[in-house]
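note to self — DONT lose this again. spent like an hour looking for the file last time. sequence + predicted structure for the chain T wanted, 305 res
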Amino acid sequence: METGGKGYILQIQKFSIHDGPGIRTTVFFKGCNLRCKWCANPESQRSRPEFTLDRLKCIRCGRCMEICDQKARTVTGPQGYPAADPAGCTMCLACEQSCPQMAIGCEGRQVTADEVVAEALKDKPFYDHSGGGVTLSGGEVLMQREFAVSLCRKLRGNGIHVAVETAAAVPAEQFQELLREVDYLFVDLKHYDSGKHREGTGVLNELVLKNIEVLRDSKKPFRIRIPVIPGFNDSAKDAAGFAEVLNRLGVPEVQLLPFHQMGERKYELLGREYTYRGKPQLHPEDLETYRDIFEKYHIKAQVGA
């Protein structure tokens, strides 16, 4: 999927304040090896660029099918909306550019590490003043490990602090390779029970727990985060289960992320089903009792960003 100097990203977001210390630029990577049922960024799951279709805008005029030289646009479903065939599509973007309603979008593009660094350097004065830097997020950064390592080295070579957000569900040697090149790590732990973890994400949690140990022993600053999801890991029993595991791992603090619905609309645009459609969001006040359980285990728990 990559060479060391090139990779696929979704976007570069400037002036982020919740993705590490100081003012930051966040680079969102394409591709993820987890399939969390509540994922707020489904457009990040697949490794290559993909189209979206806004059915509220689409008038089914057929222009996108007419202009496609590969004949990779076809009508699908009983309402006759156009869809792209991945096997034939070359991502030339002619359909997106020709759509009179601007109903077609594209998620993802290929960039070089040098292009990302050049963009980040534009805001280096802000990083230096605030103690900020660049955060690599996803998707899963470690799905493009060679590109990520190359990018980290170039950023740090230019005096830029680098943080990475990861689910760490990869072999320890791969995790360590990236760990050597970063200044700060965020690791999401979705469930303390491996079977439940696989039920919610598609993968077991043994690699995640092993890499948290690796991170702890590295002495690099890090933060463990738990996305609190209704019906999956939001009970008092779950809080105690997490706390016991974190105690065993020697992790003294955790960040609790309340479930939100900011990604719900994205599933419609991608034409995918969303398991958590319509589920009520959680708010910081909903997690007060949950947080208190961690405190009883002598683990400092922060709710929200």
